[in-house]
Write a structure and sequence with these properties.
Structural class: alpha/beta
Helix content: 25-40%
Strand order of the largest sheet: 9-6-5-10-11-13-12
Distance between the termini: 43 Å
Number of domains: 2
Bound molecules: S-adenosylmethionine
Shape: globular
Number of helices: 13
Largest sheet: 7 strands, mixed
CATH architecture of the largest domain: 3-Layer(aba) Sandwich
CATH topology of the largest domain: Rossmann fold
Number of strands: 13
């Protein structure tokens, strides 16, 4: 097996799999692809198209900052109302101040992303089909930061126990945590289970930037905005995110995509997937092959979390029995499967919190799986642009809804009532009188709800 102490021995090009890459103070380079993977704020950007990924995350940072600013404006407007009770005014004022401060802290923390010189290349990015999923914002898993580095040990110890129990005393060797989030599990595994080295991989630069700082002994102050604050003082809690002790240098944080893992074949002895397998757009079969490929002979896959697959194809919404079959079909032994109840996202400042019955499995690699195919985030007719666009049933339904919605919107002029709008739809023979009024009402309810939806950061 490789010398696990150096990242050089683990990394491979996420575009062509070439290894080793050439390392320098600025980052890593694949000579074959002539691509540089920069190190920004001490994190290697190992995306297949690093410039475009940086551009996307920068865009998502600016989007988050705009949303926070809109929330601040909404709070200012709420404060402008006359006759607010004194406790309400105090609560709103504190929340408005925290919101404004939160934006400044986030933007200071992620200032290293704002390097305009590193221009994006949308065409190459498209051609590589490595775009980020549209539902993954910078702050999608924001509460994980506080759970990992500020709420205490209960939830984090429960996760570590699952991994330790799954390994049952087997030395973990060289460990990879995929979808490591804010990095606490990788840190705990590294400090408590004494692996040769640990790599935490995630594609979210906010989570990894904070995780890396905390794990290295730094402190980061960020607000928590609990879902259901226990008191007025706990609606925005400025917390210090920190670890008890710094981890050593053999714990590393790498930015990259699970679908294009930037690691050499057979580099790891243990791969952990915490709360990951059911949120990826790729079928579990593909992930199993990818993990098989990354593990050395006899390596171990430890998985835990929910099994709540919800992608487009219902055939892929696997139960645990089907997951067993996936594993054994792709070069893994019959897994040891278990269930464990654990707390989930229980902030001390919130009345909200869950207990989850999580599924766990451990399975050892028994043989080589077929090489994983390149993940394609987008179909050819979008990427190449010269093939006919297939008109699926879903597209037809969307096209019809969009036309009707656009027409209804064009009728909103500040004078017409709901009934007036419905009448026009009937006159235009777009709907029957029975259909028109309920349809307009449904549409307006959706618009109304959207306009009042609470933003979360
Ligand atoms: C449900 S969270 C779990 C986080 C962490 N493992 C935990 O247990 O708290 C899923 C994590 O996977 C990351 N993730 C999702 N898709 C990914 C991808 N394609 N590549 C890398 N990371 C991904 C997200 O950024 C997020 O941190």
């Amino acid at each position: 097996m490789t010398d696990p102490a150096t990242l050089e021995n683990l990394l491979a090009c996420p575009r062509c799999d070439k290894t080793p890459l050439i390392g320098s103070d600025e980052g890593w380079r694949c000579d074959g692809c002539r691509v540089d993977f920069p190190v920004i704020d001490d994190l290697p950007w190992m995306f297949a198209e690093p410039a475009a990924a940086l551009g996307e995350w920068r865009g998502r940072l600016h989007f988050s900052l705009r949303r926070i600013d809109q929330q601040r404006q909404r709070l200012d407007a709420a404060l402008d109302q006359p006759a607010l009770r004194e406790p309400t005014r105090r609560r709103l004022t504190a929340l408005r101040d925290a919101t404004a401060d939160h934006a400044e802290r986030l933007s200071a923390l992620l200032r290293p992303l704002d390097i305009d010189s590193f221009g994006a290349a949308p065409e190459t990015y498209l051609a590589l089909r490595t775009r980020l999923p549209p539902d993954q914002g910078l702050t999608t898993y924001y509460p994980n930061l506080h759970r990992d580095w500020a709420w205490g040990d209960e939830e984090n110890s429960a996760s570590l126990d699952i991994v330790a129990d799954a390994l049952a005393g087997r030395p973990p060797g060289s460990v990879l945590v995929l979808g490591a989030g804010a990095g606490r599990l990788a840190y705990d595994v590294h400090r408590r289970l004494e692996p040769a080295s640990t790599v935490a991989l995630d594609f979210n630069p906010l989570l990894l930037a904070v995780g890396r700082r905390a794990a290295r002994g730094g402190k980061v102050e960020l607000y928590e905005f609990p879902i259901a604050p226990r008191s007025a003082d706990e609606q925005a809690v400025l917390r210090t995110l920190a670890a008890d002790e710094p981890a050593d240098e053999r714990l590393r944080f790498v930015l990259g995509d699970v679908h294009r893992p930037p690691f050499a074949k057979g580099s790891f002895d243990t791969i952990v997937t915490p709360w990951l397998v059911d949120i990826l757009p790729e079928p579990l079969d593909a992930l199993a092959r990818r993990i098989n490929h990354l593990l050395g002979a006899g390596g171990t896959w430890v998985n835990f979390g929910s099994l709540s697959f919800h992608g487009g194809d219902p055939a892929l919404h696997y139960t645990i029995e089907e997951c067993r079959a996936v594993l054994t079909d792709h070069g893994f032994a019959e897994p040891a499967v278990g269930e464990r109840e654990m707390p989930y996202m229980c902030s001390p400042a919130s009345r909200h919190g869950r207990r989850e019955l999580v599924v766990t499995w451990r399975s050892d690699k028994t043989g080589k799986a077929k090489a994983p195919e390149r993940y394609r985030a987008l179909p050819d007719w979008i990427v190449r642009g010269n093939e006919p666009i297939p008109v699926s049933k879903e597209f037809q339904a969307q096209a019809m809804a969009t036309r009707i919605h656009a027409f209804i919107m064009s009728l909103l002029d500040g004078r017409r009532s709901l009934k007036d709008v419905a009448k026009v739809l009937v006159e235009q023979q777009l709907m029957t009188p029975q259909e028109a009024e309920p349809a307009v009402r449904t549409f307006l309810i959706r618009m109304y709800d959207d306009s009042r939806r609470q933003t979360t950061y």
